[in-house]
Amino acid sequence: MPVAGRFITFEGIDGAGKSTHIAALTERLAAQGELVNTREPGGTPLAETLRGLFLNSGMDALTELLLVFAGRRDHLRQVIEPALAAGKTVLCDRFTDASFAYQGFGRGMDLAQLATLEQWVQAGRQPDLTLWFDLPAAQAAQRRVGREVGAREADRFEQQDLDFFERVRAGYAARAAAAPERFARIDASVLVPEVWAQIVAVMEARGW
Ligand SMILES: Nc1ncnc2c1ncn2[C@@H]1O[C@H](COP(=O)(O)OP(=O)(O)OP(=O)(O)O)[C@@H](O)[C@H]1O
Ligand SMILES: Cc1cn([C@H]2C[C@H](O)[C@@H](COP(=O)(O)O)O2)c(=O)[nH]c1=O
Prior knowledge:
Layout: E1 7-12, H1 18-30, E2 35-39, H2 45-56, H3 61-85, E3 89-93, H4 96-106, H5 111-122, E4 129-134, H6 137-148, H7 162-178, E5 183-187, H8 192-205
Parallel strand pairs: 1-3, 1-4, 2-3, 4-5
Helix pairs in contact: 2-3, 3-5, 4-7
Bound molecules: adenosine-5'-triphosphate and ligand LXEULUCI.
């Protein structure tokens, strides 16, 4: 019988450096077994369709919250749970901590209702490790400007102000404090090689 795989998630405010380091970690872990790279919102055809609406259509905060959990349910059933059951490592760019941070702390949605949705949709499933890329909102905004020259228009979240992103950041800090065994805070404000060294140290501490 295959050993259950590892579920690793990547969190942080927009522009924190997640994508940059997911690519590097994918290379490092590829030697250890089969990997599945995925993301939220998204990860299945249905959830990717919902992602387009979520990022770009006007809606109230409750609709936004329900949409992202609907996509998550499909993603868990179609991709994450089967991969873990087959012993694969799942690298997921954002998961439910983002809902607590963005919809809970950013938009002010009720955290108890979020916890109910989390339990209902995930049936106990939690990441084995969450790498939280932490940096000040102003620094992340500068990085996004650098990245967005010539790229697509900013989505509904990227258009938010610094106060919104500082609330989201506080949301991640609260989630990390509530689950210290699962979360590893990465100081994402430093140069790429220094960020990477922190990630390697976290992986080595787990024997991964
Ligand atoms: N440590 C770093 N120092 C300076 N620039 C960085 C660092 N890490 C990433 N960057 C740059 O910052 C920009 C944002 O990085 P990246 O796209 O990896 O962030 P992200 O967290 O995936 O963003 P999003 O959540 O918006 O998708 C990119 O241009 C990237 O090259
Ligand atoms: C999972 C999830 C995501 N969000 C937000 C966070 C980002 O602004 C976008 C996704 O964009 P990315 O370029 O793929 O990082 O969606 C959210 O508000 N709530 C969530 O649960």
